[in-house]
Design brief:
- By secondary structure, the protein is an alpha/beta fold.
- It has two domains: about 220 residues, P-loop containing nucleotide triphosphate hydrolases (Rossmann fold, 3-Layer(aba) Sandwich), CATH 3.40.50.300; about 70 residues, Alpha-Beta Plaits (2-Layer Sandwich), CATH 3.30.70.
- The chain is about 35% helix and about 25% strand.
- The protein is built from eleven helices and 14 strands.
- The strands form three sheets. Strands 6-7-8-3-9-10 form a six-stranded mixed β-sheet, sandwiched between helices. Strands 2-1-4-5 form a four-stranded antiparallel β-sheet, covered by helices on one side. It has a four-stranded antiparallel β-sheet with strand order 12-13-11-14, with helices on one face.
- Helix 3 packs across helix 4, helix 5 packs parallel to helix 6 and helix 8 crosses helix 11.
Length: about 325
Amino acid sequence: MSYAIEVTNLRKSFGNHEVVKGIDLHVKKGELFALLGPNGAGKTTTIHMLSTLLAPDGGTALIAGCDTVKNAKVVRKKISLTGQFAALDEGLTGLQNLILIGRLFGYSSREARTKASELLQTFGLADAMDRTVENYSGGMRRRLDIAASVLTQPELIFLDEPTTGLDPLSRQQVWEVVRTLLKSGTTVLLTTQYLEEADQLADRIAVIDKGVIIAEGTPEQLKASVGGKTLSIRVTEYKNKEQVRALIAESLQLPLFSDQDDPHVFRIPVKEASLANQAIGMLLANDVSIEHFSLSDPSLEEVFLALTHGEKKEVFS
């Protein structure tokens, strides 16, 4: 098996606080691997060690077979890191930004312009190449930032929350850019605050919590590990919220999560369909007005909540 990333017993502490506690990771070449975790889980620290920004206190990390400590300079030539904020010159055009980066990496003027033009076309920015970046939308900036990151054709790119703050359409556009990278054979390590994003893009996912990898697998494998179904209920009145919580959580001893976007909606993981029947029956018997309900397979968000004991809403950094 050929790996882009091989991590063995990687550890990092800050003072007396151990942030990363001996994790192991193996990322195959050409796949998109998502690293998910709550705030303070050790996710960002791990990425900083893998990208040579931090030296580990113990263990080893290999990028394309090169040790991130012993061969840091070689590793840096093989990777690219795109952070949460676009690293672009606002006063330059899209084309000028990419040419500048190409020239800094040693390309001739002609080579830099050719590569820049190709990337702008690939990432759907050709029509805006002569517009200054200060006039780009958030989604356009992110696409240009990723284009800048892959101009040198890295073997591995780290995408740290690439769609944070973007509207749904811009997020979809960035997803297409990421899929284009994967088609070209680039390996991608992704962190994201949007679990749907990981579900849509990732070949495999690792969940890190309190410095330890607590689960790993494909999105389908992680969903199957939770088992059962999810009962979604939408009540007609917001005042029913506490009543629903008391009946479900206290009387039936079932976990219950509020929907992030709609306070009228509750999601209840159930191991058996009979428990869903009990929950609906109990709510109706106690005069809770239900607008609609459905029973479905668990989402990746519910898997995350189950694994981290519900320590999520705005959980990523």
